[in-house]
């Protein structure tokens, strides 16, 4: 995985949400949560695994809605932040955080109804093997996102020290077919890359988002989006 050592430091974990999901980054957080809830559907009582759960943004959100959820991450520091979040939301007894490797998930086949992986595949060095492992432990559904090739994300990638893996639709379809998954639903969004939103104060970011949304609502929208949300079924 790209940036694995960087990702596991306590300093990064402690500042992770403030740097990514404050100011204009709140718009990203809201949209990602909307995408997950839209894909997963009714949550209460559903047995869910979140891979690369980080600070528990989605794990805690789903637990608050009644999911039986496990959040798995390779970083002890990120998991510690996730536990703090769960305690603050009063759902610590409704979920479990585990340290583990997404390449070797410590669960039997078909153990979860749904497996979710957000902000994961852009760092994956062997996406096919990761997706196959997610498929192995999922009984019904796998939900994940990717950054799109041939979008503004390609330009933004030049500015990043370790870059991101970008995917065309053909590449995603190939991954799904290889893992024995079928695409049930897809959503595409954000003409402008996440990094731009994170640099802007709330008011400016909101105005940009309104413009962004108007473009996404046009016939060209799906062709210029920088992010895709995929809902795949067994």
Automatic annotation (TrEMBL):
It holds the Pfam family Methyltransf_25. The keyword Methyltransferase applies. Residues 48-139 form the Methyltransferase domain. One of its GO terms (molecular function) is methyltransferase activity. Transmembrane segments: none annotated. It comes from the Archaea. Keywords: Methyltransferase, Transferase. One of its GO terms (biological process) is methylation. The keyword Transferase applies. InterPro entries: Methyltransf_25, SAM-dependent_MTases_sf. This is Methyltransferase type 11.
């Amino acid at each position: 995985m790209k940036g694995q050592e960087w990702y596991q430091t306590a300093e990064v974990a402690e500042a992770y949400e403030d740097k990514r999901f404050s100011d204009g980054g709140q718009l990203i957080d809201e949209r990602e949560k909307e995408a997950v809830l839209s894909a997963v559907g009714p949550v209460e009582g559903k047995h869910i695994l979140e891979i690369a759960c980080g600070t528990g943004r989605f794990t805690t959100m789903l637990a608050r809605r009644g999911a039986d959820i496990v959040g798995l991450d390779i970083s002890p520091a990120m998991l510690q932040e996730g536990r703090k979040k769960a305690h603050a939301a009063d759902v610590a007894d409704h979920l479990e955080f585990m340290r583990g490797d997404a390449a070797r998930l410590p669960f039997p086949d078909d153990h979860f109804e749904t497996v979710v992986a957000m902000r994961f595949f852009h760092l994956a060095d062997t996406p096919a093997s990761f997706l196959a492992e997610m498929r192995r432990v999922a009984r019904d559904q796998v939900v994940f996102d990717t950054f799109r090739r041939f979008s503004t994300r390609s330009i933004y990638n030049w500015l990043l020290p370790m870059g991101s893996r970008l995917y065309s639709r053909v590449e995603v379809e190939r991954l799904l077919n290889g893992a024995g998954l079928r695409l049930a639903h897809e959503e595409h969004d954000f003409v402008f890359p996440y990094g731009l939103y994170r640099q802007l104060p709330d008011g400016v970011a909101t105005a940009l988002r309104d413009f962004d949304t108007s473009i996404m609502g046009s016939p060209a929208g799906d062709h210029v989006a920088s992010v895709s949300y995929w809902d795949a079924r067994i």
